[in-house]
Amino acid sequence: MLPATLRRDSTNARRAAAAAARRLPPLVHEGLRLVVRHSGGVTLLRLEEIECLEADGNICVVHTCAGEAHRLREPLGQMLGRLGEHGFIRIHRGIVVRAGSIAAVEKGSYRKAFVVLRSGARREIGRAEFHKLRALWQPGVLDLHELSGSLQLVAEAL
């Protein structure tokens, strides 16, 4: 058995390493693909190609940057559970977008806000998510790695 001071030091070292790992930005997983089955076979979509996911009952419609739409027999909540750590965020009860595909946020009339995606598509931000996504329209620098967790305004623009 190790003396108490050595045990304490090794425990502190493990905690410090875990804290440092949490501060690092998530790795981009080049090899990850979403497998979409269709009548002619399967399509492998890179996560960077996916712009948004939309619910249609228990069907998840995957919209790509190229304008394609693929249908999966999986609820949106399960898809978000698998893709949430890879930069996908819920902006509405039935819509999940990839944080990197957000080009702008437009305010509408009477508490309405819209996310404008790189393809030019506009998706409404739901009332429940409106306050959670408030950092999207605050001036400053936004860390997209933190977008899938809790949104934080990093610093004022210099």
Structure in a nutshell:
The protein has three helices and twelve strands; from the N terminus they run αβββββαβββββαββ.
Structural notes for this entry:
- The protein has 158 residues and is α+β, with helices and mostly antiparallel strands.
- The protein has a single domain (31-155), classed as Beta Barrel (OB fold (Dihydrolipoamide Acetyltransferase, E2P)).
- It is built from three helices and twelve strands, in the order H-E-E-E-E-E-H-E-E-E-E-E-H-E-E.
- The protein has helices spanning 4-23, 76-83, 127-130, and strands spanning 33-38, 41-46, 50-56, 59-64, 69-72, 88-92, 95-98, 102-107, 113-117, 122-124, 141-142, 153-155.
- The protein has a five-stranded antiparallel sheet. A three-stranded antiparallel sheet has the order 8-9-10, with no helix packed on it.
- A hairpin with a 2-residue loop joins strand 6 (88-92) and strand 7.
- The protein starts with a helix and ends with a strand.
Topology:
Layout: H1 4-23, E1 33-38, E2 41-46, E3 50-56, E4 59-64, E5 69-72, H2 76-83, E6 88-92, E7 95-98, E8 102-107, E9 113-117, E10 122-124, H3 127-130, E11 141-142, E12 153-155
Antiparallel strand pairs: 1-2, 3-4, 3-7, 4-5, 6-7, 8-9, 9-10, 11-12
State Rg: 19 Å
User: What's the CATH H-level homologous superfamily?
Assistant: LytTr DNA-binding domain
Please give the CATH class. Answer: Mainly Beta
Largest sheet: 5 strands, antiparallel
- The assigned structural class equals alpha+beta
Number of strands: 12
Question: What's the structural domain tally?
Answer: 1
User: What is the molecular shape?
Assistant: globular
Q: What do we call the CATH topology?
A: OB fold (Dihydrolipoamide Acetyltransferase, E2P)
Q: Whole-number average pLDDT? A: 76
Approximately how much helix is present in the residues? 10-25%
- Ends distance: 54 Å
Order of helices and strands: HEEEEEHEEEEEHEE
Please give the count of helices.
3
Order of strands, main sheet, comes to 5-4-3-7-6
| CATH architecture call | Beta Barrel
**Low-pLDDT residue intervals, each spanning 5 or more residues:** 19-28, 150-158
